Amino acid sequence: MTDVENKDLLTALPMERDDKCPFDPPPGLREGRPLRRMVYPDGHVGWLATGHAVVRAVLSDSRFSSRHELIHEPIAGMEGPGGERDAAPIGDMTGIDPPEHTRFRQLLVGKFTVRRMRLLTQRMEEIARDQLDVMAEHGAPADLWTLFAQPVPALMLCELLGVPLDDLDTFQRHTQTALTQDGRPEEVGMAFRSLYGYMRKLVAAKRAEPTDDLLSDLTETDLTDAELAGISVLLLVAGLDTTASVIGLGTFALLRNPDQLAAVRDDPSRIDDVVEELLRYTSVAPRAVRAALEDVELDGQVIKAGESVTVSIEAADRDPERFPDPNKIDVFRQASGHLAFGHGIHQCLGSQLARMELRAAFPALLERFPSLRLAVPAEEVPLRANMSVFGVRELPVVW
Questions:
Q1: Which helix (H) or strand (E) holds 160?
Q2: What pTM did the predictor assign?
Q3: Number of helices followed by number of strands (H, E) in the chain
Q4: Nearest to 245 by CA among 167, 153, 347
Q5: DSSP letter string, 102-158
Q6: What are the tens digits of pLDDT across the range 249-282?
Q7: How far is CA 92 from CA 72, 229, 231, in A?
Q8: Which H or E run includes 100?
Q9: What's the confidence (pLDDT) of residue 46?
């Protein structure tokens, strides 16, 4: 390793956020070059990419693999019980490469088109209004996370997939366990096994008696029961928590910036731009990891075959070369080009679903409760710093 590399070497991934502004990436994450050397918990010396252009390049380059068994984890405890790196479970598209990934993607991409999401908009607006009724009936103060942010996308996704609503609490509990970064491996493994076991039974039921939902549609493809169960678990785990976290954390960010909240409330016609800025600013899914399949020259440096690259989405979306004054929330900003949904072949399959849900949720919330405000000091709002998806644990509000 050269003297330059030694000087710029990170001994660990920066994880601790500043209590004064928890929305900002951890201090030190964006210091130094946009691509620099980093030591992983298992001793592997790989890379950390933080610049928008570099992160985008890694995510779109087929010379970098998503296969779980090839990557080194940047956070201790995320590997298997013995420190091994297991292959992705059947149906987990996030941990495989083409051609296997291409087969799954082609079967699913038509189910999440912009047109189909538009057709679901009215139902989404109904769900949002119904949950706001629940919140109003509860009365202030209320926890916006549990009464609105969490159930709204969950109810929409369960309807879309055909998951019985009676089982929603169970799914949410297992999902929370599965996404905990510092949870015991056996508990995380048990949560995933419980989800897979349930979905295998549901897939069998849909094959026997199809209903009008996405999972029933997929039973008509050549996907096996195991593949269908795996894909369903992925969609649930990825979709239940991420959109909910943007609603919760995005509302928190607006409440901390009353001028921005007023702009959103007073001009709901601008909601498309608002949603893109909140996606950029919150960065609820902060990182991904890739492994180089061959030597790759990038940003004037050579990433050797076998080396892992952690791509920091939260840092890339705060790159001042791409977004001026990036640590400021600005709902008038043109934030298109953010990487909140990733980029390349693994770009989030449900991005249009998430956008549709967010475009319905925020205007409905601020129309129903125009005087919405925090019920506690901002520094007392508990955050989920130990989860793979960043967000609030609670959001106490009054109106």
A1: helix 151-161
A2: 0.93
A3: 14, 10
A4: 153
A5: HHHHHHHHGGG-HHHHHHHHHHHHHHHHHHHHHHHHH-SSEEHIIIIITHHHHHHHH
A6: 999 999 999 999 999 999 999 999 999 999 999 9
A7: 18, 10, 6
A8: helix 100-109
A9: 98
